[in-house]
């Protein structure tokens, strides 16, 4: 036999038995009462009452499941007793014992839901047991459904509560993430400002101790200062873009990528650390022009080269290459630096993902990816921890 779905749910929710198996029999005729009690005792826990008053008393004390009552009693009818019983124990099943002559009263009571069944006197044993079986079935199902509805409500309330808590925690997390991001941003700005200040202080000092400062030296210091300023401005711009999350405005023109790379190299050469690396540049001759925003793509190349410098030690190798593959213009920066741990590799393009750097903001690659993708190009990274890293950018070559 297929399992009853309600029984299954009861089992799952460990609701156990929902019925007490207690039957209250009410009859003013002592003999009838004893006969009924004896018949039902083998299967149910029986309570007998000779009067309505006694029945009410028992209903108050015991958790009765089913009431069987005679209809005709001296001081109260069975139906009236049931009406009273509903005020004390509404959750019972009520069966009346009656003679034919009472049918209209019975129908009325059944229609009002006060009586579950009526049994005609003299009652038949099988019919009595079958009726009781039905009564308990109905009781069990009704109580189970009510309990299950309660459980659903309880779970709903708990769910609503935990959803509220989740939202609170999430908001707190966002707040603290924002604060941490602000910390990193101000850290980056302070770092850039310090570099500029150091340059200016050096000039001041040179002027103080040595009136006729070497022209080349002064030029170098000023150029480094300007590069620092440019960096500073780029950082501020990136932050601004990130905070506004707006589309970048591209000012595209048809240009030669090799030219862009050469320009970038003249800028990054001002960085003393860059000069301490072994830099190899391989630019493919006769590259077709690309339709790009030269300043934005320069920013991408600067970001990649700066990362390569930061990842390598003095005399570390950095290779900068351009090439043409399948009508795609490719730009590559490779280094033999520290590499990126595999578990970090899919995070590096996320905003504020910076690892192993004291003053990294973690916007360089995020912005670079955004710029490349707005050009309809792709940026990819391959890295092996301890061995090195390659970043590759592919842009669509302009068709003649
Ligand atoms: N060439 C590289 N070699 C090793 N790790 C790299 C390399 N390039 C990027 N990374 C890793 O990826 C992270 C994210 O780079 P990204 O340029 O976005 O941020 P950042 O350099 O930390 O800060 P900034 O915003 O100043 O550029 C770096 O912190 C670094 O851990
Ligand atoms: Mg960077």
Could you give a short description of this structure?
By secondary structure, the chain is α/β, with parallel strands linked by helices.
Can you describe what's shown?
The protein is of the alpha/beta class and 400 residues long. The protein has three domains: 5-123, Rossmann fold, CATH 3.40.50.2300; 169-244; 253-396, Heat Shock Protein 90 (2-Layer Sandwich), CATH 3.30.565.10. It has twelve helices and twelve strands. The chain has helices spanning 5-12, 30-41, 52-61, 78-88, 103-111, 125-209, 215-244, 257-268, 272-275, 294-311, 342-345, 364-374, and strands at residues 22-26, 45-49, 66-70, 93-98, 117-120, 253-255, 278-282, 290-292, 317-325, 328-335, 378-384, 388-396. The strands form three sheets. Strands 2-1-3-4-5 form a five-stranded parallel β-sheet, with helices on both faces. Strands 7-9-10-12-11 form a five-stranded mixed β-sheet. Strand 1 (22-26), helix 2 (30-41) and strand 2 (45-49) form a beta-alpha-beta unit. Helix 1 (5-12) crosses helix 6 (125-209), helix 6 (125-209) packs antiparallel against helix 7 (215-244) and helix 10 (294-311) packs antiparallel against helix 12 (364-374). The radius of gyration is 44 Å and the shape is rod-shaped. It binds adenosine-5'-triphosphate (ATP) and magnesium ion (MG). Adenosine-5'-triphosphate (ATP) is lined by residues 303, 307-308, 311, 335, 337-340, 348, 353-357, 360-366, 389.
């Amino acid at each position: 036999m297929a399992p009853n779905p309600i029984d299954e749910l009861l089992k799952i929710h460990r609701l156990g038995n929902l019925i007490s198996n207690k039957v209250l029999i009410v009859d003013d005729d002592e003999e009838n009462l004893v006969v009924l009690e004896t018949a039902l005792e083998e299967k149910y826990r029986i309570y007998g009452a000779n009067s309505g008053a006694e029945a009410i008393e028992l209903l108050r004390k015991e958790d009765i499941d089913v009431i069987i009552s005679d209809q005709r009693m001296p001081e109260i009818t069975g139906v009236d007793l049931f009406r009273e019983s509903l005020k004390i124990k509404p959750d019972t099943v009520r069966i009346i014992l009656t003679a034919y002559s009472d049918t209209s009263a019975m129908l009325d009571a059944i229609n009002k839901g006060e009586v579950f069944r009526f049994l005609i006197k003299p009652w038949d044993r099988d019919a009595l047991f079958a009726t009781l079986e039905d009564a308990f079935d109905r009781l069990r199902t009704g109580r189970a459904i009510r309990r299950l509805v309660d459980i659903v409500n309880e779970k709903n309330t708990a769910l609503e509560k935990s959803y509220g808590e989740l939202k609170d925690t999430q908001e707190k997390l966002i707040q603290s993430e924002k604060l941490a991001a602000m910390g990193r941003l101000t850290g980056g700005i302070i770092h850039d400002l310090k570099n500029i200040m150091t340059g200016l202080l050096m000039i001041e000092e040179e002027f103080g101790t040595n009136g006729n400062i070497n022209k080349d030296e002064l030029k170098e210091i000023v150029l480094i200062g300007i590069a620092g300023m440019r960096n500073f401005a780029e950082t501020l711009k990136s932050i601004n873009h990130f905070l506004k999350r707006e589309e970048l405005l591209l000012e595209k023109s048809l240009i030669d990528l090799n030219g862009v790379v050469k320009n970038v190299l003249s800028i990054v050469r001002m960085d003393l650390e860059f000069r301490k690396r072994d830099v190899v540049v391989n630019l493919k001759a006769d590259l077709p022009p690309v339709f790009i925003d030269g300043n934005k793509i320069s920013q991408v190349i600067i970001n990649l080269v700066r990362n390569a410098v930061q990842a390598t030690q003095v005399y570390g190798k950095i290779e900068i290459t351009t090439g043409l593959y399948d009508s795609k213009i490719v730009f590559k920066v490779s280094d033999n630096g520290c590499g990126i741990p595999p578990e970090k590799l899919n995070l590096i393009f996320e905003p504020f993902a910076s690892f192993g750097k004291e003053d990294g903001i973690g916007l360089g690659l995020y912005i670079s990816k955004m710029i490349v993708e707005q050009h309809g190009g792709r940026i990819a990274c391959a890295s092996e921890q301890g061995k090195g890293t390659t970043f590759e950018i592919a842009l669509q070559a302009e068709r003649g």
